[in-house]
Amino acid sequence: MSVGFIGAGQLAHALVKGFTAAGVIAANRITASSPDTDLPTVSGLRKMGINFTTSNKEAAHKSDVLFLAVKPHIIPFVLDEIGPDIEDRHLIVSCAAGVTISSIEKKLLQYRAAPKVMRCMTNTPVVVREGATVYATGSHAEVEEDLIDAVTGLSGSGPAYAFTALDALADGGVKMGLPRRLAVRLGAQALLGAAKMLLDSEQHPGQLKDNVCSPGGATIHALHFLESGGFRSLLINAVEASCIRTRELQFLADQEKISPAAIKKTTLDKVLQQPGVSSTSVATKSRVNLFNNRTGVKK
Amino acid sequence: RCLCCVTVKMSVGFIGAGQLAHALVKGFTAAGVIATHRITASSPDTDLPTVIGLRKMGAYFTTSNKETVNKSDVLFLAVKPHIIPFVLDEIGPDIEDRHLIVSCAAGVTISSIEKKLLQYRPAPKVIRCMTNTPVVVREGATVYATGSHAEVEDGKLLEQLMGSVGYCTEVEEDLIDAVTGLSGSGPAYAFLAVDALADGGVKMGLPRRLAVRLGAQALLGAAKMLLESEQHPGQLKDNVASPGGATIHALHVMESGGFRSLLINAVEASCIRTRELQHLADQEKISPAAIKKTTLDKVLQQPGATAAGVGVRTGLNLFNSSTSKHKKN
Fold this sequence. Notes:
homodimer; 299 residues; alpha/beta; seven-stranded mixed β-sheet; elongated
């Protein structure tokens, strides 16, 4: 099948890089679109041999599976723009945090009788083929859609927690005398190895931790510092904060009128210059409730 | 890490049959870098849970450390730091010119080991290394430093072995304590983190198994991205944090709690404790209180071991360290 990406930013770039490395789809069957050609990821996408276009409609025409890889507040604009171009064959996969299947379906039902919509939450390590993805189809789900916000907080945002930790671990190594490059390398390798042990093992993380802690040794001394500082609690807080913010974004999207202040005029102009796009279809009129959500209820 | 022509033809022995020996044997055999019939492990204690695992993998297990020495060319010292002096006294007479001694004991210096072995041989070949438990899944992090009598080829041989189970590089011996704090103890920090992340996921509604899976996968993927990227970890973090999004909200909470500082503290604490252990080993007389009488008895029952050889006299300074060193900074 052909795969398209509405949006040519970090997520589209990471997925295309992963897919092509995995050989799961040929580069010439991939299209990505964005009105903004200045994104640093655009040149990366072009280098990988995919079709890049400034026309979202063209991406829709060329694709069977269509990933919506734009920020959550852009989704309504995009759906209005490509709605008329969706055919029966299209499978719409939204990767936008907090955007519900039902909100997307509601929009597309204005154009087609039975739009096929899936929602997924993935993360950037797809770029090295070690992503974590969950999806929901609405009718039958790999994960109940209710859980996707929690997944966002855990594995969606998770890599950022890891990068922060790795930066700090390297700082610790450098403080104790290691050169920076070696410290970064060792920290990342230690984290990778530990994660792999956990994934390959039946044992509880606590048991694996115990196995590393020799009596009176260096590691248990270090762990005491982590516990004293509430290390665990900070991570629980982080997952919770990310999940709560995701639900807030969803709520804002469901309830509020989307103001044109959320999108740059220059970007909107670029969209309007694409063949087939009219200003009425992109709903630039102020104060239009883009989700037409009279029966909108926050999940 | 191609398996085709990196098979080590030597025999490898482990003094000690605990977590570290088990992890290394599991990794080496999975990597195919050495045939299991060329591996021997010994411990006077046959009740260790890891002993069963070692036997199952086809390694030869014995209660006699001397037997391990006789059967091996590369000899890993995989016992706890305070046991090293006992072991060196026990096997010292059996070391031959061919032997390459690789100590994995945290905080034990090359010079302390060489000093002991110089009582038995003029030029003992000693390497000190610091590895970590993910060697068991072939994703270890290992550094090593070579002693004065070890040749370049000996270092290369160790790199071949340890490189088959993860990352391995040579460093100055001075840095090994810091490495202990970072990648030696590092897996424990990660296990703690995944346990906590999973708690967070469960709090927000995820089933436990899925939460552990996603947490571990997210860490693995992020670490892999960093290893394969030229970019700074801060840049990679920035790339994940969309404006006003979920991630930056989470990061703020972490920063507010001093998350980074806790990790720096941890690396420092582990490194400092390692240096303390080294200092204790260098300076103090090793008391027989550090070893169980039943264990000592088992050792003494092995062929060739004598009470004099094992240095059980109370108060005996087992490192014979008249030129005792000052604590390293």
